[in-house]
């Protein structure tokens, strides 16, 4: 009697004959299932069943086969491959983010730091507004990224924003600084960091970000937006004892919005 792996190979051959020569997909499926029963690690039988169920739109069964195969595979690389494919089916075909996250997490258990799984989990955490998980995952991605400057800066900016959402302001500040260090013209970083710096009283950070933000995007701002940034810049100059620069910023803010609340008072104070 043939060994189970040999029997599985024979059943796969029979399945191909059923489908290709006889046009009988039902018999082919039964033969493939028998092959999997004989040898759950048979790669060809698994892939054929996943393809067959995918073509039918039965994505639940396709994902189930891959999930089981990830646990049965002898080769760790196959386990990772099957779990990744299962995760993508859960995410893209079944729109089941919990199922996808479970499989991506499984991949990280088998292959720590796997870039595809980390990126998918970071994206899922960001979409769910799970800021704690997103912060760590995005920081890991940004720190190990070999990407274009724009992409790396975006990862650091998103990591910083996630940290900010959890109330970790110094961690957020560090992330914004890293994003700025990668790409000083990254607009989302300048916008988020300048606002946080103004709220936290990080006046040197305001001086770093606001002039660049105004130079880069000022022409696209409304008068109120531009004046608000100038007021923030003026306060930073005053806090750092540069009343001349503070006066100039407050005066420019009033040029854009003559009745801007607090601007005239700030101007008088800067001249006092």
Walk me through this protein's architecture:
The protein has 272 residues and is mainly alpha-helical. The chain has helices spanning 4-20, 25-38, 43-56, 59-72, 76-93, 97-110, 115-128, 131-144, 149-165, 169-182, 187-200, 203-217, 223-239, 243-256, 263-271. The longest helix is centred in the first third of the chain and has 18 residues, at 76-93. The model has no long low-confidence stretch (mean pLDDT 90).
Q: What is the helix tally?
A: 15
Helicity, in percent? over 70%
Weakly predicted, low-confidence segments: none
Largest sheet: none
> Structural class given helices, strands, pairing?
mainly alpha
Q: What is the 3D form?
A: rod-shaped
Mean model confidence by pLDDT: 90
Tags for this entry?
mainly alpha; 15 helices; 272 residues
Structure summary:
With 272 residues, this protein is mainly α.
């Amino acid at each position: 009697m043939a060994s189970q792996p040999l029997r599985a190979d024979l059943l796969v051959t029979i399945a191909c004959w059923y489908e290709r020569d006889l046009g009988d997909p039902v018999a082919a499926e039964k033969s493939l299932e028998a092959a999997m029963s004989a040898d759950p690690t048979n790669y060809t039988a698994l892939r054929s069943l996943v393809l067959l169920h995918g073509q039918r739109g039965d994505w639940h069964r396709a994902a189930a086969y891959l999930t089981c195969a990830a646990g049965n595979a002898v080769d760790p690389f196959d386990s990772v491959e099957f779990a990744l494919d299962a995760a993508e089916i859960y995410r893209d075909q079944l729109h089941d983010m919990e199922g996808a996250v479970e499989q991506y997490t499984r991949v990280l258990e088998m292959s720590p730091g796997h870039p595809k799984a980390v990126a998918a989990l970071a994206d899922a955490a960001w979409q769910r507004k799970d800021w704690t998980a997103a912060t760590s995952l995005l920081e890991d991605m940004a720190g190990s990224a070999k990407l274009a400057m724009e992409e790396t800066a975006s990862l650091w900016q998103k990591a910083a924003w996630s940290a900010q959402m959890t109330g970790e302001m110094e961690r957020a500040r560090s992330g914004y600084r890293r994003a700025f260090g990668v790409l000083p013209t990254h607009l989302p970083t300048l916008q988020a960091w300048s606002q946080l710096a103004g709220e936290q009283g990080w006046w040197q950070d305001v001086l770093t970000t606001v002039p660049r933000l105004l130079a880069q995007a000022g022409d696209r701002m409304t008068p109120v937006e531009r004046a608000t940034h100038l007021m923030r810049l003026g306060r930073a100059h005053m806090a750092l004892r540069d009343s001349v620069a503070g006066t100039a910023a407050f005066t420019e803010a009033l040029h854009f919005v003559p009745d801007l609340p607090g601007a005239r008072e700030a101007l008088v104070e800067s001249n006092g």
